[in-house]
Each structure stands twice: as structure tokens, then as C-alpha cells.
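user: Please review this fold.
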Amino acid sequence: MTRQLVTIAGAGKVGRSIAAELLENGTDVLLIERDAAKIRPTALPKARWLQADACELSSLESAGLGDCAVMVAATGDDKVNLVVSLLAKTEFGVPRVVARVNHPKNEWLFTESWGVDVAVSAPRMLTALVEEAVSVGDLVRLMKFRQSDASLVELTLPTDSPVAGQAIGSVTLPQDCALVMILRGGQAVVPSPDSTFEPGDEVLAIAVTSEAEVALGALLGASSAAVRTGDGL
């Protein structure tokens, strides 16, 4: 059976926003929410809804979590997100578990020991982006994926970047690197061979190794070989 179901625990603003994006991309989404006031099928008619406590094993069994490809623990309670993550990974073997970190002081708990593959801390991400905004030319690590050495990195191209003005297709990226998105003037530019790098572009990329991070920074014109850590994950 093809496992394409994404289950989201928590149907608050964060959970519904994630669900809306996934549904728009054609993904099958199930929302689990304990609070009846947050059950809003009319807001997301294409989603499946289950009013239940995601911390209870019986609820997750009813949700068919064994056929789930990704579990997203998106409630506003870190304790709940940890329990949901642990149950999803240990009891149902969900391949990918993503957990929301509400309070940065709890980040150290969101590890593989609790079944978490990727921990997302909004405060840390915002901090990283603010730091990046005042640091043109610095390569900033926004997120590190827990089950590999891969990282999401960002660099704002300085005016003297070696790739400025060049077509993306003509630039050979370092091994183990891939472009994700370019932000230009508040607009997202999907990288294509004919697109060009321009000074001031915010380049987002995936680097699989630390060596790849350094090589990418050198290619794009980073001000130093050091990679700044923005989120601490």
C-alpha cells in the first residue's frame, strides 16, 4: 500500500495552515483534534477530521496511523507533541515525524529518543531570519534534519558575489547541494536553469554535509568560511 497520508495532531491555526498547504498540493490529510470548538470541516472540506485525544493509543489506532507516511505534532503544548511523536514512531512505525516546538527551552527534548525526526521551532527560525537580514554575505544554517547531516541553509548574495548575474544553469553547484528557493524583493523565485542570481537574493539550499555547506558558501561569495547556526536544532 502506498503510504501518502499525512496526519496532523492539533487543529489550531498552525495545524490548519499546514493542512491547507498540503491539501492544495494534493496530499491526503487527517486532522486529529480533542477540542470540539476547533473541529471545522467547512474550513477544510477536503481534509478528514477526527475528534479525539492524539495522546491516546486507541485514538491513533482509530485514525489508522499504521498507514500514515508523516505525522505532524502541531499542538500548542510541547508535552502533547512529545507524547504524540513517541507513540507515532514506536507504536506505529511512522516513517517521518515532525514536531512543533512551542518553547525554545524545551528544544533539547525533541530528539530521536522521543521519536522526533524534525523539530521545528518558530521562535528560533524567526531569530535566524532576523539575524540573517542584518548579515548579508553570511551563510546561516536555519535547520538541521535530525536523521542525517543535511541542513537547510540561507545566504543573502552580496554585491560582489561570484555568481551574481549568472544563469543558474551555468553554475555548477558543489556535490551534495541543491537549491530550494530564491527570495527576491519579497517574492519567491523557483530556481530554473534560465533564472539568474542577483545581488540581494536570499538563496535557500539544502547541503547534505558540513563540507558541502562550506563549498556552497564559497561559491556564493560568503564573507567567511564559517557557517552561522540560526536555530540550534
Remarks:
- The two ends are 33 Å apart (CA to CA).
- The helical segments are 13-24, 57-62, 78-90, 122-133, 210-220.
